[in-house]
Amino acid sequence: MIPRYARPEAADIWSPQTKFRIMFEIEAHAADAMADLGVIPKLAAETIWAKGRDAVFDVDRIDEIEREVKHDVIAFLTHVTEIVGPEARFLHQGMTSSDVNDTTLAVQLARATDLLMDDVDLVLAALKRRAFEHKLTPTVGRSHGIHAEPTTFGLKLAGHYAEFVRAKERLAMARFEIATCAISGAVGTFANVDPRVEQHVAEKMGLAVEPVSTQVIPRDRHAAYFAALAVVASSIERLATEIRHLQRTEVLEAEEPFDPGQKGSSAMPHKRNPILTENLTGLARLVRSAVVPALENVALWHERDISHSSVERGIAPDATVHLDFALRRLASVVERLVIYPENMLKNLDRLSGLVHSQRVLLALTQKGVSREAAYAAVQGAAMKVWRGEAAFLDLLKADPVVRPHLTDADLAELFDLGYHFKHVDTVFARVFGEG
Amino acid sequence: MIPRYARPEAADIWSPQTKFRIMFEIEAHAADAMADLGVIPKLAAETIWAKGRDAVFDVDRIDEIEREVKHDVIAFLTHVTEIVGPEARFLHQGMTSSDVNDTTLAVQLARATDLLMDDVDLVLAALKRRAFEHKLTPTVGRSHGIHAEPTTFGLKLAGHYAEFVRAKERLAMARFEIATCAISGAVGTFANVDPRVEQHVAEKMGLAVEPVSTQVIPRDRHAAYFAALAVVASSIERLATEIRHLQRTEVLEAEEPFDPGQKGSSAMPHKRNPILTENLTGLARLVRSAVVPALENVALWHERDISHSSVERGIAPDATVHLDFALRRLASVVERLVIYPENMLKNLDRLSGLVHSQRVLLALTQKGVSREAAYAAVQGAAMKVWRGEAAFLDLLKADPVVRPHLTDADLAELFDLGYHFKHVDTVFARVFGEG
Amino acid sequence: MIPRYARPEAADIWSPQTKFRIMFEIEAHAADAMADLGVIPKLAAETIWAKGRDAVFDVDRIDEIEREVKHDVIAFLTHVTEIVGPEARFLHQGMTSSDVNDTTLAVQLARATDLLMDDVDLVLAALKRRAFEHKLTPTVGRSHGIHAEPTTFGLKLAGHYAEFVRAKERLAMARFEIATCAISGAVGTFANVDPRVEQHVAEKMGLAVEPVSTQVIPRDRHAAYFAALAVVASSIERLATEIRHLQRTEVLEAEEPFDPGQKGSSAMPHKRNPILTENLTGLARLVRSAVVPALENVALWHERDISHSSVERGIAPDATVHLDFALRRLASVVERLVIYPENMLKNLDRLSGLVHSQRVLLALTQKGVSREAAYAAVQGAAMKVWRGEAAFLDLLKADPVVRPHLTDADLAELFDLGYHFKHVDTVFARVFGEG
Amino acid sequence: MIPRYARPEAADIWSPQTKFRIMFEIEAHAADAMADLGVIPKLAAETIWAKGRDAVFDVDRIDEIEREVKHDVIAFLTHVTEIVGPEARFLHQGMTSSDVNDTTLAVQLARATDLLMDDVDLVLAALKRRAFEHKLTPTVGRSHGIHAEPTTFGLKLAGHYAEFVRAKERLAMARFEIATCAISGAVGTFANVDPRVEQHVAEKMGLAVEPVSTQVIPRDRHAAYFAALAVVASSIERLATEIRHLQRTEVLEAEEPFDPGQKGSSAMPHKRNPILTENLTGLARLVRSAVVPALENVALWHERDISHSSVERGIAPDATVHLDFALRRLASVVERLVIYPENMLKNLDRLSGLVHSQRVLLALTQKGVSREAAYAAVQGAAMKVWRGEAAFLDLLKADPVVRPHLTDADLAELFDLGYHFKHVDTVFARVFGEG
């Protein structure tokens, strides 16, 4: 985990203290269920909660024990015994380390996903506000980086909004995938632990019961989880790339906030760089890098091997914490994005109306000109505009194919921006459920 | 696409003929809608259907035209004009190539996914049949490749069944992700095409309407799609790996079908190799390789660029066709898997009961022996078994820590396989909804 | 393999006919060696060459046999027997299928790499020619997409040239990695085939001897090979991205060739899109997608399993053929790139000299102004330029911090483009070995 | 970086203190060169070294400054001023942050690679010692997990040795790729910094001069670097997988060291799991996960953007430190691997000589039996052995095809293990340069 791209709220989920707290709760809830089943004394379960409920775990001490016994869960339980006393011997009956570890991971991932979904809400709120603010702000739509036809800046943002609505659904599905509890004992047969213990712990920890665990929760769930995060990261990259493009010196239709006192470059005082969205682009790559190892983790050998463990020690905190950071940063960038409608208009006019070439083409065909002849005439004029020879409207007015069919008034109407915005309401209604 | 790993039914979805057929239907349905809206003559739309409904498209001719005009959709439309006649000029009004291409891809991917879901049904049926057949067949559960505790072969298969139930849900979600229709014109503003055309085509082609397209359908959908396929591929790999392990010479608990006349090796006549499941392992890697480029396709520039296109020409047919092949092959392997219960029993006994070490440990602690002392005693005996010095039961009977607490009858009971199978019904009920 | 991105020369390496030709040569050379060693009759080896040297293999027939015997090499050998007659029984003595298959793959990959290295030579030649053509063409250097300082277009291309020199070295290393011959028999012990046979075949096929094969050539070699191709693909993507940026409407400093008769868009006649470099971006993603499965192929089980085979049937032809196509396309784009020096100058001036901010800053500090004060003054002026309030030079001349230290002549000198080009010769000498 | 998989020597390369130390040295060496060129006073350069040579940098203070100025290199230089005094103003003249950052990263990666190459030496030494120890220890060679033919354990290890020799060459190439120095100023034109400064710093820091930098060192170098590490990681995975297979309960031909006092499982006292090699498998996945983002980092925009930076803050320390840890762990596992030659022999005999089927087949064909008839006879007998019906030798002796051609003595000779080991010396000579 890279500290500079970690919010404390997210990083804390992966702190040793939080992990041990969750592990304790799982063990203590399991003890409750075992006590109810008469497997262990009720008093033992009560004592465990009484002593452990507010305990602070001594992480260094646990590390010290682990160095000796070379087993992380045994080290944890040994330390719990130091806190709880002899009743701790009733903990973990018939359970395996994986029962605790995998269920703990499920809780951590579920909590991390709750943060991520809140983060997406912030992104959505920012996008929605700016989309309505610029619902009818004209700007040029670009395909292949080349001017195509007019659109509005609000429409651009509405598209990203719709994508982040999908992102939220994907995160909800991802949370559903991994939020399961397994307490099924060695090789998952429940030989020494009653399935009702699992049921109880699942309820208390806010998880579903894993239908079949084989000592471990099957890793296809985690693969699906990290894949979902990767798609969300790619959606961040798409919006970040859009902003980077809009801030290019020659375009400058929007710009990341640049704070007073900020220095864009140590060498060149004039610089204002889109470093936040470039950073988001990099973070997207980092978050995505969890996908392949997560997929490789699925095919564990037989009932389980432990090859997935080191991978998850890396990717679980890294991918969730960095994605949380990236979503927050994105929300802030969108919220504070400096938007230059006048530059949008200037760019839109840069090619003297070339963006209306389709309308002229269609108008000519509707007047009875063959599509081929109309295309050739309009393209011919357009190529002269690209070469800087003349303005598009002038060329059209002088064109022997165009002139007989389209009056100056016709052409003026064909160059009207409003024509392109008549369905903005339709799209906004689809996306925001309102106009 | 590798022909030897392609079923005709799946490959056909990606044939030029099928693609042109879908493209025609999209254009013709759009023409119907435009005719209803009074944008084009009703007679034109009728003629288009009348001439094109049963047409066979001349793929070579379309290629020939494309070489000239260097544009695939224009080539297609030119050929349609050759088939339909002059009314073809009413096709494609206000539409862009992407409207047709992206919607066609959606139809192809949706159809491919229908096949994949049928394939998963075959895998599920095979797994279920074999799971019930071997519901109580004892076998050793292994963690880390090392004998752990007894389980049943049916439980193993039930776990894979549950995983493929998830695979089917993931495919259903993936289908939902990509089954959308976009007919929104240049940069997605509907400037020259009414949104009701999109609505009509979507209904006719069995798709949802894409809320915001920007000339293209946003590629986060496709990234999510290929990610889902990759997870399914990894589930195949897990089951394939299990079978490969089971067939290892020293294990030989199950074996791929080996047909009369088959030669396992040109050089070594004795060979019977798990080549089908090894092949599935490789195919899983191939299908997964679509994930990264699909993620990289998301961040197109502005309203669209065409960098995604070449990628999808590769991964869309390859990933779907090879996954279809792999699922079918897997279903067949499971269906025909040769299972050796007697070898399972032999392996289970190989360590003279070491797999019962946990039960002995728990029994000792229940008799009041401290966990540490009990662990030391049982581990001590076990290590002698690993070194081949004696049988586990004999060592336990002679152990000074064990003997005072456990009679011969106690120990015999602790070595009972049935103890481990008491919750098989519970798990089967969870997985299959029945015992 | 996607036919539209495949040159015949490259695709032919992977045709069945070529493959069978190489397999025959390996077997026949091995027969020669065996005959020299007295293992098989000299006459047999001679007959094999006599009958097979110019044979055309009947691919359909071999497929037919394979469907029966379910073994590709046996099918091939059976067909060879049909061509050669009974002497064919002396072929393949003590060899395994992998001896033939892996050595054949080595030959195919080596030949494909030869093409790729020739392709890079074309890219290098085009880059060098254009670099010298524009050695001193001024253009703005951009960091973060924002104008930074002046550079020359030749310097830009020199950087890409240096990168493709590295690409060629990487391909040379990659070729070295995979060009090995293994004829070591079952599990690689040479039990039934003399190591001198391997030595002879290696020499004849232009390969090195694999030091230790375990029936297969170790797959770390192939992983390194495809990784090298992926890096080359990324270098293509970098140059393609540069060109796409340069062609953006607002930038338009360079443009892909646009042929007479070409249509940029079916709907918008004015469009001229950088579709070739967008395509190269996509192809780079495709080529890179071979890396992960190739890495996953390394850890075969014990002496070999066959999971790598299906993967390589896909990635070996696809990655090499598409990379070949991409390199050729790139060479052509660079060769024919339309370059607009006047637009470069116009863009360079767009910010009224802001690109000289560092020089002003340094000049002020050299006059004794503290770095902080100088930075504040220059940045202050620059921000006004960004806001469109005034021209940079005017602001500087009026600035109370700047004016006391820099005369009009000083400032004019600081705005001199030539200052930035004084080391172009140095860099060209490093890259091209000449000025 | 995951602390439990990090050796201090490796992690220290990436500590802030080390980074700032390298940054200081680069700046101070650059000052020396500038002083020699008369750009700054000689006394300034001397003072910088005098005050900074043994300075300890206050990392918290630098962080504090960075929070204010939002620029890491400016924060560092500000702190250096606090240490060095006013002469620090002569530092960094005409340089950019990237000059320092990229060259620092080059030094860090080069040092990390030196460690990695030392690590590989340890792996090689361990493999060589064990290979010679078991040069002629018979063991079964397995293809597809199925017994194939006899080999020796030394030959297995020799193959891995040869692979790690390649690993070392790949690391050497990778080091060569990234060990370059760039001090070329804004957009890489050397406008304000003499190329001789770069030359001097490169020499002092043990780097080559980067021929063309564009403010940054081109990222194809780093992509090639991380790709090389990924291949090395995969070679670790192959050997780790081999050991995991050998330790499987049913195989048990080798075993990871199991220390006194170690607990294999908290629940099952009998467990001895190959957790080290499973961990290596996971670490290999982690190290490999750097490849894709490193490839995505190559196509920076124009002269540079900063999207690579966050990625490299993650993958550079993580991949190098975890690979270092993995190589050391692997060396230790190989060094201490417990090898069971008697189990190897037992496994070799498990199929009553089936591993000799090829020899019998070849002997029959040499006696004049057609290959088809011989294959059918030997395969027929073998299949009975698989079914447990009889021993292979007995079946052969009773076989009507075999009996007329092979005497008991012939068959005994065909079952001789030594036959398979006659070329072990050849292979050892190739690999180790000695027998």
Q: What is the topological layout?
A:
The structure is a homotetramer of 435-residue chains.
Chain A: H1 8-13, H2 16-36, H3 42-52, H4 59-69, H5 72-84, H6 97-133, E1 138-143, E2 146-152, H7 153-178, E3 180-181, H8 195-205, E4 208-209, H9 220-247, E5 254-255, H10 275-288, H11 291-296, H12 307-336, E6 338-339, H13 341-349, H14 357-366, H15 371-386, H16 392-397, H17 408-414, H18 424-432
What brief labels describe this structure?
two-stranded parallel sheet, Fumarase C, Chain A, domain 2, 3 domains, 6 strands, Ribonucleotide Reductase Protein R1, domain 1, 435 residues
Walk across the major sheet of chain A and give the strand order: 1-2
**Order of SSEs of chain A, N→C?**
HHHHHHEEHEHEHEHHHEHHHHHH
What is the chains' assembly state? Answer: homotetramer
State the fourth-level CATH superfamily of the largest domain in chain A: Fumarase/aspartase (Central domain)
Q: What is the radius of gyration of chain A computed over CA atoms, rounded to a whole number of angstroms? A: 30 Å
Distance from N terminus to C terminus of chain A (CA atoms, Å) equals: 42 Å
CATH class category label of the largest domain in chain A: Mainly Alpha
Overall pLDDT metric of chain A: 96
The CATH architecture of the largest domain in chain A: Up-down Bundle
